[in-house]
Amino acid sequence: MENQSYLLFSLHGLMYGVETLHVREIVLLPELMPLVSATVDIVGIINLRERIVPIMDLDLHFGYQPSAYQLSDRIIFLEHQDALIGMIVHQVHDVKTIDWACISTEITYEATKDVAPFISGIARIDDDLITLLRVESLFQSLTLPTTLVENGASASLQQVARATPTTGSHVSPEEQIILHDRARSLSQRSETQELAGLLSFAVLKIGEEYFGIETTVMREFTDVSHVTPIPCCPDYIIGNLNLRGEIITLLSLHHILNTAQADTKKAIVVMVEDIIAGITVDEVLDVIYIHPSTIQPLPAAARVESQTYSNGMAAYANKMMTLLDLPRLLTQGELVVNEHA
User: Fold this and answer.
1) What DSSP string describes 70-139?
2) What are φ and ψ of residue 155, in 5° steps?
3) Does the pTM exceed 0.90?
4) Domains and CATH numbers, the chain
5) Which range has the worst mean pLDDT, 148-152, 169-173, 226-230, 329-333?
């Protein structure tokens, strides 16, 4: 069988994966609309660009004890045939291509008996065990009531979590505004814009700043470990990374972006023309869709380097992020190794 690409995420410290071909998009947890007579695992619905999408809590779906939700939680939207659902997860990690030889399809553990129909296999990568979900089974188990929305009321974090929030948890008015704004943004994107014109960006944190890179040039996210230094190279060349037998040169953008450099443990692997490289980041925050009409020019006071390697700015989570022109940066910019030095 061919190797498959999986999006990895976690719940309560356990790692899961879903095939990327089913992943529509990933967003931060928004305000949800409660349902009447919904099954216990369906914690609400959202209006995703004029499409009503049910939101599933995997803990409740598998019969586990849920925890209170956080503003940092994500929803992964999965697509199968013409159907769409969202899953609430705690953290989204990497996109990895998993060798079929690393996957065991025999589910023999008694603890997984009830959830076995939703598992396609268990993958072992280094010291991690990753439960691979069978997306088709999640959709087949989905049961929705005929009456969708209760009095048009919005749900708070406590309401969404039903009767199981963490003791003493409290959602401040500021947090409720953030949830509401996220939901409103998701519902209004297509009211004046064509979905076909949206651009997909990965939102990255480098230093204390947010940056966006078009997903068309991205190959995967990965953890950084066991980097081999390269002698006689500029400071921005960190070294070589062995990625499943493929040697990838690891680069830092901190000097160009004028951000504080830290001991980062994550990287994105990008491919521009015939160049394959890894770029260190402090955090991978999100994957979002942006309409070109919402992209703003950089302020006149921005550094010359930022203007040279940027396609503008866009709003994200009440902040502005710089949209990097990675192809120009890698092919025409300062990230050049002088092999004759």
Assistant:
1) -TT-EEEEEEETTEEEEEEESEEEEEEEE-GGGEE-----GGGTTTGGGEEEEEEETTEEEEEE-HHHHH
2) -105, 135
3) no
4) 4-192 (2.40.50.180), 196-332 (2.40.50.180)
5) 148-152
